[in-house]
C-alpha cells in the first residue's frame, strides 16, 4: 500500500489562485518565498539503530501528540462506513490523526474548517505488497473486488454532504489492470450522484502500466495523486521491491499528460534518514515532471514490526520545506508533522 495523507487537500484555499482548469482544492497552506538553506534548528532524534524494532525509551515530541478519536462527526462517519462495509485508510493504516480529520478540526496541519473528511480505501483492506512503513494487512491471495463497492462508496459520500473526497486503495497486483477500472467506476458513480464533487484519486503505480493510468486519469477525477514516498536512496528500504522511484515518476508524468489541466500531487515522508539535499532533489524531480501539489509529513512507526523513526523533524523545518517548495514552483505545498503521507497510495 502506498502512503497518503489520511486527510485530503481541502477546497477553500484554491479560489482565485490557479489558472483555467484548476479544481480549486488545497490544504490550509500559506504562500511563501524562501530559497535559503534549511534552518539550523535542532531536531529530536531517535537513537541510531536497526531499521525495524521500537526503542521504548524514545518519546514522541509534544507537537506529535494527539487526542483519542472522539466526537459526534467521528462517530457518525464511523457508523456510516461500517454499515456500508467500506474501508478507510484512516482506520486500516492506524492513522493517529483520525479523530481530528473526521471531525473537521484541521488536526492534520490545517485550520479547522468544519468539513469532516475521510479517505476511502477501495479494492478491499488487504494489500499484495509489503512496504515497511505501512500497517495495512498484506497477502498474495485476495478475493475479487466487490462489484457493489463503487456504488456503495458513491452513496456514502453523497450522503455525507462533503464537497471533496479522496479515494485510495491497496495495491492489487493480482488484478490485470491493478484495479484502475474499479477506481474509474467509483469516480464515475460519484460524479453521477453529485456532479459538483471534487474527487482526488491517490493511486498505486499499477505496476507501471500506463494504459491503466490513462484509464483512471480520464475517468472524470479532478486530482491524480501518487506518492513517491521517500528519496531515491531509501526506496528499497522503505517500499516493496515492486515499487520504485523511476516507476512512480513515470506514473505521475503520464497522468499529467493525459488531460489538459490535470492536477497532479505527490507526498514525501520525512524522518527516515533522508538528507536535506536528497529531499531537495526529490522535490526538483517532481517539479520537472509538472507535479502541482506536494505534501510532506512525519513518518511515524505504526507497529514494532515497521521501520523505526530516525528523526522527529521540527515544525520549523517543515515550514522551511513548505516555503522552499512553493519558491521552486509547486502550486501548493502542505508540510507539517501531522500530515501523514505514509498512509495510502
From TrEMBL:
Its main location: plastid. GO terms for biological process: protein lipoylation. GO terms for molecular function: 4 iron, 4 sulfur cluster binding; lipoate synthase activity; metal ion binding. InterPro entries: Aldolase_TIM (IPR013785), Elp3/MiaA/NifB-like_rSAM (IPR006638), Lipoyl_synth (IPR003698), Lipoyl_synth_chlpt (IPR027526), rSAM (IPR007197), rSAM_sf (IPR058240). [4Fe-4S] cluster 1 binds at residues 90, 95, 101. The keyword Iron applies. [4Fe-4S] cluster 2 binds at residues 127, 131, 134. It catalyses: [[Fe-S] cluster scaffold protein carrying a second [4Fe-4S](2+) cluster] + N(6)-octanoyl-L-lysyl-[protein] + 2 oxidized [2Fe-2S]-[ferredoxin] + 2 S-adenosyl-L-methionine + 4 H(+) = [[Fe-S] cluster scaffold protein] + N(6)-[(R)-dihydrolipoyl]-L-lysyl-[protein] + 4 Fe(3+) + 2 hydrogen sulfide + 2 5'-deoxyadenosine + 2 L-methionine + 2 reduced [2Fe-2S]-[ferredoxin]. Keywords: 4Fe-4S, Chloroplast, Iron, Iron-sulfur, Metal-binding, Plastid, S-adenosyl-L-methionine, Transferase. It comes from the Eukaryota. Binds 2 [4Fe-4S] clusters per subunit. One cluster is coordinated with 3 cysteines and an exchangeable S-adenosyl-L-methionine. It is found in: Plastid, Chloroplast. Residues 1-25 are annotated as: Disordered. Gene3D superfamilies: Aldolase class I. CDD domains: Radical_SAM. Pathway: Protein modification; protein lipoylation via endogenous pathway; protein N(6)-(lipoyl)lysine from octanoyl-[acyl-carrier-protein]: step 2/2. It is an enzyme of class 2 (transferase). Its EC number is 2.8.1.8. Residues 110-331 form the Radical SAM core domain. One of its GO terms (cellular component) is mitochondrion. Its cofactor is [4Fe-4S] cluster. Belongs to the radical SAM superfamily. Lipoyl synthase family. PANTHER family: LIPOYL SYNTHASE (PTHR10949), LIPOYL SYNTHASE 1, CHLOROPLASTIC (PTHR10949:SF31). NCBIfam families: lipA, PRK05481.1, PRK12928.1. HAMAP family: Lipoyl_synth, Lipoyl_synth_plantC. This is Lipoyl synthase, chloroplastic. The gene is LIP1P.
Amino acid at each position: 500500500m502506498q502512503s497518503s495523507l489520511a486527510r485530503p487537500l481541502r477546497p477553500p484555499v484554491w479560489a482565485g489562485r490557479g489558472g483555467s482548469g484548476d479544481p480549486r482544492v488545497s490544504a490550509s497552506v500559506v504562500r511563501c518565498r524562501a530559497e535559503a538553506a534549511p534552518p539550523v534548528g535542532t531536531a529530536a532524534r531517535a537513537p541510531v539503530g536497526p531499521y525495524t524494532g521500537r526503542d521504548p525509551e524514545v518519546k514522541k515530541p509534544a507537537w506529535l501528540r494527539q487526542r483519542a478519536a472522539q466526537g459526534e462527526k467521528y462517530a457518525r462517519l464511523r457508523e456510516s462506513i461500517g454499515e456500508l462495509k467500506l474501508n478507510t485508510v484512516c482506520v486500516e493504516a492506524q492513522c493517529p490523526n483520525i479523530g481530528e480529520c473526521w471531525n473537521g478540526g484541521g488536526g492534520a496541519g490545517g485550520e479547522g474548517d468544519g468539513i469532516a473528511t475521510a479517505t476511502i480505501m477501495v479494492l478491499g483492506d488487504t494489500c499484495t505488497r509489503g512496504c515497511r512503513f505501512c500497517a495495512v494487512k498484506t497477502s498474495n491471495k485476495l478475493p475479487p473486488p466487490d462489484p457493489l463497492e463503487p456504488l456503495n462508496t458513491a452513496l456514502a459520500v453523497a450522503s455525507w454532504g462533503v464537497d471533496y473526497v479522496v479515494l485510495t486503495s491497496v495495491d492489487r497486483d493480482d488484478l490485470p489492470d491493478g484495479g484502475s477500472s474499479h477506481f474509474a467506476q467509483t469516480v464515475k458513480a460519484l460524479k453521477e450522484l453529485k456532479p459538483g464533487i471534487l474527487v482526488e484519486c491517490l493511486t498505486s503505480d499499477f505496476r507501471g502500466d500506463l494504459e491503466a493510468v490513462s484509464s483512471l486519469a480520464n475517468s472524470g477525477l479532478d486530482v491524480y495523486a501518487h506518492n513517491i514516498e521517500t528519496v531515491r536512496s531509501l526506496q528499497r528500504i522503505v517500499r516493496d521491491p515492486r515499487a520504485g522511484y523511476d516507476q512512480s515518476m513515470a506514473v505521475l508524468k503520464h497522468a499529467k499528460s493525459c488531460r489538459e489541466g490535470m492536477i497532479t500531487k505527490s507526498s514525501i515522508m520525512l524522518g527516515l534518514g533522508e538528507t536535506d539535499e536528497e529531499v531537495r532533489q526529490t522535490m526538483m524531480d517532481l517539479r520537472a515532471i509538472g507535479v502541482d501539489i506536494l505534501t510532506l509529513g512525519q513518518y511515524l512507526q505504526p507497529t514494532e514490526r515497521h521501520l523505526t523513526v530516525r528523526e522527529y523533524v521540527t515544525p520549523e523545518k517543515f515550514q522551511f520545506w513548505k516555503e522552499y517548495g512553493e519558491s521552486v514552483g509547486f502550486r501548493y505545498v502542505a508540510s507539517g508533522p501531522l500530515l501523514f503521507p505514509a498512509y495510502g497510495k
